[in-house]
Amino acid sequence: MLPGWLRLCLCALILCGSVGAIAAPGAVVRLQVDGVIGPASADYLVRGLAKAVDEGAQLVLIEIDTPGGLDSSMRAIIKAILASPIPVASYVAPGGARAASAGTYILYASHVAAMAPGTNLGAATPVAIGMPGSPSKPEGADKGETDKPAQGEKGSSDAMTAKQVNDAAAYIRGLANMRGRNAEWAEQAVREAVSLSAEEALEQKVIDYLARDLSDLLRQLDGKTLPAAGVEVTLATAGAPLISHAPDWRTRLLAVITNPSVALILMMIGVYGLFFEFSNPGSGVGGVLGGISLVLALYALQLLPVNYAGVALILLGIAFITAEAFLPSFGVLGIGGVVAFVFGGLILIDTDVPGFGIPLALIFTLALISAAAILAIVSMALRARRRQQVAGGSTLVGSLVAVAAVRDDDPRAGWVALQGERWQVQGASPLRPGQQVRVTARDGVHLRVSAVDEPPPQGGH
């Protein structure tokens, strides 16, 4: 049983640790999106909205500055906003910020859309992704988005692009109609990649408010009634406490491992760690580090828009580079492995969204490191092969050894300790313990010996 004073101290520590982490009822919860919208930012916003509901906040304010992001992450955020029983206000700030592409969709989905002076939004056309000549995948249809407008070209690729752009246009038009905003301009932002400044957006009824800062926005929202999940909510934001929820360790970790470059490095560490563990079992370091890294890499890749042909090429390249260390291919497997790895890295991430590409320098560096490691292993193996053999059956003949023991029933038979093993020996004449003998031949698990002072037998056995 803990003493009373100790329990009071523990309670005080718990209460102090929770201060600032829990919003007071009726507070305004502030979340921030700064940068590309991906799995980490989607997880952060979705959990932030849920946490605000649990805390009894009256409004969630999302401060946005983004060039766009992945369609899957954008849609997860919009679903959470549409289902939220608390009104959500998206605010593009500070001055110089933007809500481009996916940010425009999120702005249209929010209960309140606001911008600071000197900001802009728009350019919401789906991005063409994949290899040149392949059908594009738009934001409204799959996992990427673009800054270029659709051109209405001929062919099956153009038909696919048109379908995807139409889908994206219908999506944002639906959001505009739901919130009573300018649906015509929203469709233009998708089809023609147009943009607007904050003042123009307010004039064309794309946004609801133009606010200098957060205090100005909260002042304008005070007393407003907004529908949220079918319920009318009246805001009392003037003087309401503003609670900021910064990204926690989970969000920061997710942001790191879902970086495509980090995911590729983790996959390399995982594969090579397991390879070295299987090659030299017992140490455990390679297996533990490789297993953890590979699981993290696979988790990250399943959250990203991955081209599985790229994954297959990377794994095939690693297999070829590894096989070069064991098969006499004179470099064919190694070179093929490097080429496969480079092409796999180039097509691994199936999107042109900014912030989700893998630098060419990293791809070539990892390929060269893999090739250098295998060349080092091959050179060590070749050097070891040229060395003179110092152990094994062929080195037993001619060895000098002392007799350890002699059999009682046959004085010419006994045992010796040689190369860390116990051998049965057979001599041409009686043996005695401690006598120096020379191994003249090997017969299975038996050795034939002769006394050092005796001439070696002629003719082998």
Automatic annotation (TrEMBL):
<feature type="transmembrane region" description="Helical">
    <location>
        <begin position="253"/>
        <end position="275"/>
    </location>
</feature>
<keyword id="KW-0645">Protease</keyword>
<keyword id="KW-0732">Signal</keyword>
<dbReference type="GO" id="GO:0006508">
    <property type="term" value="P:proteolysis"/>
</dbReference>
<feature type="transmembrane region" description="Helical">
    <location>
        <begin position="355"/>
        <end position="378"/>
    </location>
</feature>
<feature type="signal peptide">
    <location>
        <begin position="1"/>
        <end position="23"/>
    </location>
</feature>
<dbReference type="InterPro" id="IPR052165">
    <property type="entry name" value="Membrane_assoc_protease"/>
</dbReference>
<dbReference type="InterPro" id="IPR056739">
    <property type="entry name" value="NfeD_membrane"/>
</dbReference>
<dbReference type="InterPro" id="IPR002810">
    <property type="entry name" value="NfeD-like_C"/>
</dbReference>
<feature type="domain" description="NfeD integral membrane">
    <location>
        <begin position="262"/>
        <end position="378"/>
    </location>
</feature>
<keyword id="KW-0812">Transmembrane</keyword>
<feature type="compositionally biased region" description="Basic and acidic residues">
    <location>
        <begin position="139"/>
        <end position="151"/>
    </location>
</feature>
<dbReference type="InterPro" id="IPR029045">
    <property type="entry name" value="ClpP/crotonase-like_dom_sf"/>
</dbReference>
<keyword id="KW-1133">Transmembrane helix</keyword>
<feature type="transmembrane region" description="Helical">
    <location>
        <begin position="306"/>
        <end position="323"/>
    </location>
</feature>
<keyword id="KW-0472">Membrane</keyword>
<feature type="transmembrane region" description="Helical">
    <location>
        <begin position="330"/>
        <end position="349"/>
    </location>
</feature>
<feature type="domain" description="NfeD-like C-terminal">
    <location>
        <begin position="404"/>
        <end position="449"/>
    </location>
</feature>
<dbReference type="Pfam" id="PF24961">
    <property type="entry name" value="NfeD_membrane"/>
</dbReference>
<dbReference type="GO" id="GO:0008233">
    <property type="term" value="F:peptidase activity"/>
</dbReference>
<dbReference type="InterPro" id="IPR012340">
    <property type="entry name" value="NA-bd_OB-fold"/>
</dbReference>
<dbReference type="InterPro" id="IPR056738">
    <property type="entry name" value="NfeD1b_N"/>
</dbReference>
<feature type="domain" description="NfeD1b N-terminal">
    <location>
        <begin position="39"/>
        <end position="222"/>
    </location>
</feature>
<dbReference type="GO" id="GO:0016020">
    <property type="term" value="C:membrane"/>
</dbReference>
<keyword id="KW-0378">Hydrolase</keyword>
<dbReference type="Pfam" id="PF25145">
    <property type="entry name" value="NfeD1b_N"/>
</dbReference>
<protein>
    <submittedName>
        <fullName>Membrane-bound serine protease (ClpP class)</fullName>
    </submittedName>
</protein>
<feature type="region of interest" description="Disordered">
    <location>
        <begin position="129"/>
        <end position="160"/>
    </location>
</feature>
<dbReference type="Pfam" id="PF01957">
    <property type="entry name" value="NfeD"/>
</dbReference>
